[in-house]
Design goal:
The structure is a single chain. The protein has 6 helices and 2 strands. The protein has one domain: Arp2/3 complex 21 kDa subunit ARPC3 (Orthogonal Bundle), CATH 1.10.1760.20. By secondary structure, it is mainly alpha-helical. Helix 1 (3-24) runs antiparallel to helix 2, helix 2 crosses helix 6 and helix 3 (52-69) packs antiparallel against helix 4. It is 75% helix and 5% strand. The longest helix has 27 residues, at 125-151.
Length: 162
């Protein structure tokens, strides 16, 4: 099996894991049309293992697809941009400092969704969005950093990142 086929299979697996972590492992927030999920762990892990392009693709496409499947289609284009940017940031900074990379990616996600929630639902949604997102990025960071330390040897060589 060629290396490129293996890489595509791994990316397909991470995309599927992201959809499962977002759609199946989600917890609705009462009052607003918001929910908490474990998708951040997959976005961060993908970006840490495979770099910014894969982090952006899996984060943006997988998360937007999850919004559509999960019944939140209005969020899909917003999610595509925010989660794609989040994955790109984490993947871009990861070689220098994994913890900083995840923190900056999480801050970007939180700011993006706070702005979007405020525009869609009013200023009252912003504190709820920020609180939920803080828990979500924190849980995702802990899970991804833990798994990365155990899975980093399966990563594609730096020269072969796509």
């Amino acid at each position: 099996m060629s290396e490129r086929i293996k890489e595509l299979a791994i990316m397909g697996l991470f995309s599927a894991l992201l959809v499962i972590a977002t759609v199946v492992l989600r917890f609705p927030v009462p009052t607003f049309n918001l929910y908490f999920n474990l998708g951040e762990a997959i976005i961060y892990l993908t970006a840490l293992l495979y770099g910014p392009v894969c982090g952006a693709l899996i984060g943006g496409v997988g998360s937007a697809l999850s919004d559509i499947i999960g019944g939140y289609p209005v969020w899909a284009p917003i999610t595509f941009i925010i989660k794609g940017l989040e994955g790109y940031i984490v993947g871009s900074i990861a070689r220098k400092n994994r913890l900083l990379a995840v923190a900056l990616g999480g801050a970007t996600m939180m700011a993006g969704y706070a702005l979007a929630a405020g525009l869609l639902y009013g200023i009252g949604a912003v504190p709820i969005e920020l609180a939920g997102d803080f828990v979500q990025v924190s849980a995702g960071a802990v899970i991804a950093l833990f798994l990365h330390s155990r899975l980093k040897n399966i990563s594609i060589n730096d020269e072969d990142r796509f």
